[in-house]
Design goal:
two-stranded antiparallel sheet; Phage tail protein beta-alpha-beta fold; 3-stranded mixed β-sheet; about 150 residues
C-alpha cells in the first residue's frame, strides 16, 4: 500500500511552516540557557523559602559562635531539593560594617520556631539581617541589605 500523495500546494505550505519553525528555534536557542538558569534559581529560592518556614530546634542556651549556628542550620536542612542544605553567603563587608564576625557569640534555645524567626532573633542583636536572592541566603548588615526579606 502506498502513501497518499499530497497536493503540491500543501507540500509547499508544510515545507514553509517547517522552515519557519526551524528559524524561530535557531533564534530562541541562545536564550534557552538563561531561561533554564532562571528557572533553576527560582526553584532553589522557593525551596529555601519553604525550608526557612519549617521549624528547627536551636539548642544553644549557653551561647555559641555565629559560625556554629550557621553550620547547624546548613547541616540540618539537607533534603532532596537542597542536597547540601540551605546555601548561606556571609557578606564580609556587611559583617565588618556591623562589627560582627563568625566568632560573635549568640545564644538561642528554641524548639518549634521556624528557621527564619530563629535566624532573625540571632542576627538582630548583632546588627545583621538576611535575605534570599540568587539562590542563596545572604547575611549582611542592616544598612547593607539591598533586598529586605
Amino acid at each position: 500500500m502506498t502513501a497518499p500523495r499530497l497536493p503540491r500546494w500543501r507540500l509547499r505550505a508544510l515545507t514553509a511552516a517547517i522552515a519557519a519553525i526551524a528559524v524561530v528555534l535557531l533564534l530562541i536557542r541562545p536564550m534557552v540557557p538563561g531561561w533554564v538558569a532562571s528557572y533553576r534559581t527560582w526553584r532553589t529560592e522557593r525551596a529555601i523559602r519553604d525550608r526557612l518556614r519549617q521549624p528547627l530546634p536551636m539548642p544553644f542556651p549557653g551561647g555559641t559562635s555565629l559560625g556554629n549556628v550557621l553550620i547547624h542550620i546548613k547541616a540540618s536542612t539537607k533534603s532532596g531539593t537542597l542536597p547540601d542544605g540551605i546555601p548561606i553567603f556571609l557578606d564580609p563587608i556587611g559583617l565588618q560594617e556591623a562589627g560582627a564576625s563568625l566568632e560573635s557569640t549568640v545564644a538561642i534555645n528554641t524548639r518549634g520556631e521556624p528557621i527564619e524567626a530563629s535566624l532573625k532573633a540571632i542576627l538582630d542583636p548583632l546588627g545583621l539581617t538576611f535575605y534570599v536572592a540568587h539562590g542563596l541566603v545572604s547575611v549582611t548588615s542592616k544598612a547593607g541589605a539591598d533586598v529586605p526579606y
